[in-house]
Design a protein that fits this description.
By secondary structure, the chain is of the alpha/beta class. It contains eleven helices and nine strands. About 50% of the residues lie in helices and about 15% in strands. α1 packs across α8 (about 145-160).
Length: about 300
């Protein structure tokens, strides 16, 4: 019952937000972000601590960036509500694609394409934008603890033309088929992967990292295209596509995962206010080998 009420409330809120002109949506997001920065003490403190530690910033510089992070994240939240306004006719009003031939030429090889993405900018609009621009988009996604939120996201993604896979074995098979059919397969590769992840350097510290993108790149010989999205100063977004690269014979899953991590790190250093700094990226600690008392 509660879930149904939440779902109806969200749908009504989304319908109301979709009546706004986009410029008003962004203005409301700026004000909401200022409030969010003030009330979300736990996330704010974690973000400030992590950005100072990993970018070696002064407290003042860190605060300026993290304030913008909260504002942009609030704008992203409202934009997710606004997603029903996105369609093939309107998408170019809100987004542009830089280096589009990189992805077109990679797809033309017929081996499918792995998209390297992150919790960077409005990653939901990144996927929707690529799909609406005509790219055959599939992606892995993490199940959300809130079933209503997951249902809403699934609806928005499906409306845009995105096919979503989760981590179950049948979905892994479907993802493999998608690459064999010459589609794109997106991976969000900047979250903590827990004890089963691969530890690589990320912003100066070892971090447990998902190996899925590297495993699929090796197995299917698919090119990898870095895929990020940033906000334009004039409003809307710019999708940034990087040059395709491949899992080479001298690569290992470890070294290739490090390569992917470094690409994401470089984007964060260039656009520090676009990354989700309060996520628990370094939550899993590197296992201590040979500790006294170990069997």
């Amino acid at each position: 019952m509660i879930g149904s009420v939440q779902y109806i409330f969200y749908k009504l809120l989304s319908a109301w937000i979709c009546l706004f002109p986009y410029s008003l949506l962004l203005a409301c997001g700026r004000q909401l972000g200022k409030l969010y920065y003030c009330v979300a003490a736990k996330q704010r403190k974690r973000a400030l601590r992590q950005i100072q530690e990993h970018l070696n910033l002064s407290p003042k510089a860190a605060e300026q960036i993290i304030r913008r992070v909260f504002i942009k994240l609030s704008q992203t939240f409202l934009e997710v509500l606004y997603m029903p306004r996105l369609n093939k006719q309107s998408v170019s009003k809100y987004m542009t694609v830089e280096n589009r031939p990189y992805l077109e030429e990679a797809l033309a090889e017929g081996k499918g394409v792995i998209l390297l993405a992150a919790h960077f900018g409005n990653w939901e609009w990144l996927g929707a934008g690529l799909a609406l621009f005509g790219f055959p988009l599939t992606s892995f996604a993490k199940r959300q603890p809130n079933e209503v939120y997951m249902r809403i996201l699934a609806e928005h993604r499906s409306q845009a033309g995105i096919e979503i896979f989760y981590s179950k074995s049948l979905d892994l098979i479907s993802a493999a088929k998608a690459l064999k059919q010459g589609k794109t397969l997106g991976f969000i590769s900047d979250q903590d992967a827990g004890p089963k992840g691969i530890f690589v350097d990320f912003l100066g510290q070892k971090a447990s990292t998902p190996a899925g993108a590297a495993v699929f790149a090796k197995k299917f010989h698919s090119p990898v295209v870095p895929t990020f999205i940033v906000r334009r100063k004039t409003g809307g977004h710019q999708i940034l596509l990087g040059e395709p690269f491949y899992f080479e014979p001298d690569d290992t899953i470890q070294s290739f995962t490090q390569k992917l991590s470094t690409i994401t790190e470089n984007m964060i250093r260039e656009y520090p206010d676009e990354w989700l700094w309060f996520q628990k990226r370094w939550n899993t600690k590197v296992p201590v080998v040979g500790k006294e008392g170990d069997a």
